[in-house]
């Protein structure tokens, strides 16, 4: 599975934390880590043009293989030249397998020997049967730079026996995905599952390491409803002591700024989450003072920008909280757009500053300063 | 009312039609005419940043005094530094009085000696009483470069007696608006009403000319449901033979590309309409082949851009009809955004080319070529 296309260079390791800075090389460009990846589920980061994402300094974006397999279909995307051409993003792309979406279908999911059957209740309601091989065929048709194995994501709370079976299934599927995956210009990442059980997490990781030379690892099954502290009880030892040093570590579906800052301290390299864009569309802005709900009447006459000194198009452009309040209250598209630009910039910039702090060997201080911010607990 | 801030220079008159090219000078910049003005009803052209409008070459945009008086309120906009500061558009702005909106409230409208009472059914349902003086106070608080008198817009069809009374009321209100309007850095345009009756139109115009030195004239009450041909029966003689030569003529709420091309031939200088952005949000694109409904399945595999050779961000950016079909079908914001950029570019570019044709004295040929396009009747 190792490929000349995908190498990960470790640039710096922080002396007082487990934070690292690196560069992940891909066929569509280099990805400096740690990094936040904006989510473009259906081949579009909602409301933003690719050039606006470039302007924010986004280096890699996500799309979702499940959603794209439903509409417009992986074959159509392949016919149109692959995902990069289709959505006009010429930088690196990562596609999630859709495992998370499949298992969020609840009662409509049935496992069998070969794979999983689920009902596409969010599309036309038809039944779909996926084997890991089917999933890899979709991933290869879409043509992202990085693709994730099909896995079973467990909810929280969950019975240990249930989580254990999910780890076993995910391990089996990792092997089958690895065998089915043949595109050399595409990296396949394995996914560590195991819920909030460290021993199961380690068993999952061990199996992935034994079954092949994955160029990177996802860590799934966190941020599924548990407290921040509960996640770190197992994530911290897993990432800081057990994950291979020379491969990128991707904490899937996370998350909020404080979790990113602490995740980097554990040695996480990559993050993604819909939070910045979804909360933006609901009228909320990230700030060092915490989350600002622009719907609130207290912003009606507020002539300051979202965050003084912020370099995002909304703040640099001088759009006031008063104007944003008006847009959000009137359900104007521009409200969600400006807040999405701001929130994505917030996380991208946070990771750029984190990276610099790691390179300069002062990441412990960076975390301390973050935790002292009035808004750091407000996530 | 005449002001050093607002002068209109006539640059060229076409030899074979009544088309003209000019420049309208305003405190926030020059407006080359003929021109299409994108509509930003609630202080935002839906889905687009001001810098994107600049990128399209928009020179002046609209907002609506009625809507802004409701939310966020004219006083609040004034407190925030006026409309330009509020919405971060530093070019010229024109605000419509809201007369059209008031009289579209139907059964909820009552006229009296002093003004009009209507129920804001599209907001909190409260009753509002407006005099022409109230309306001018709102216009002056908002602070656009050009504001329109309060008028009574008549529907089509309408009884002649009803239209006649509306002309009389609009004339009376024009005088009262002119007396109440004091901002020298803001131009007040009178509005010619009169429905589809040329004699009433001329009576309306005559009264406006007699009651003051308006720096420009709106022509209202067209595009209210009548056929294109019926409008031109009265619009053509009105604009080409009777409107004063050295003042800009603004055909309000119009419209589609073919009407713009023919309107310019009658001597119209300014147009506005929600059509390009509203149809965009419904999934439709302007093209020389007519209107393209991107929801249609025939675009699913279409790898061409909306219009070959088009310089808009959607076409220049290489976004295919296939991708746009996907976005529109999935109700992704980016679909409406890309189509809005394309449709606005289409009308802005059409007027730029029309202006060049007028200056080069070949506008009759320009109209003929337009009418020969396969899509010219498709509006």
Tell me the CATH superfamily of the largest domain in chain A.
Queuine tRNA-ribosyltransferase-like
CATH topology of the largest domain in chain A: TIM Barrel
For the sheet with most strands of chain A, the description reads: 8 strands, parallel
Q: How many β-strand runs of chain A?
A: 16
| Largest Cβ-defined interface | A-B, 40 and 40 residues
- Whole-number tally of structural domains of chain A: 2
Strand content of chain A: 15-25%
Question: What proportion of the residues of chain A is helical, as a percent range?
Answer: 40-55%
Q: Your description of this structure?
A:
The structure is a homodimer of 379-residue chains. The first copy, chain A, is built from 15 helices and 16 strands. Chain A has 379 residues and is of the alpha/beta class. In chain A, helix 8 links the parallel strand 11 and strand 12. Chains A and B meet through helix 4, helix 13 and helix 14 of A and helix 4, helix 13 and helix 14 of B.
List the keywords.
379 residues, 2 domains, TIM Barrel, homodimer, eight-stranded parallel beta sheet, 16 strands, 15 helices, three-stranded antiparallel beta sheet, globular, alpha/beta
Q: Strands, helices and their partners?
A:
2 copies of one chain form a homodimer.
Chain A: E1 7-13, E2 20-26, E3 29-33, E4 35-37, H1 50-56, E5 61-64, H2 65-70, H3 74-79, H4 83-87, E6 93-96, H5 99-103, E7 109-111, E8 116-119, E9 127-130, H6 132-142, E10 146-148, H7 160-180, E11 187-192, H8 198-211, E12 217-219, H9 228-242, E13 249-251, H10 257-266, E14 270-272, H11 275-281, E15 284-285, E16 292-293, H12 313-316, H13 321-329, H14 333-359, H15 363-372
Parallel strand pairs in A: 4-14, 5-6, 6-10, 10-11, 11-12, 12-13, 13-14
Antiparallel strand pairs in A: 1-2, 2-3, 7-8, 8-9, 15-16
Helix pairs in contact in A: 6-7, 7-8, 8-9, 9-10, 10-14, 10-15, 11-14, 13-14
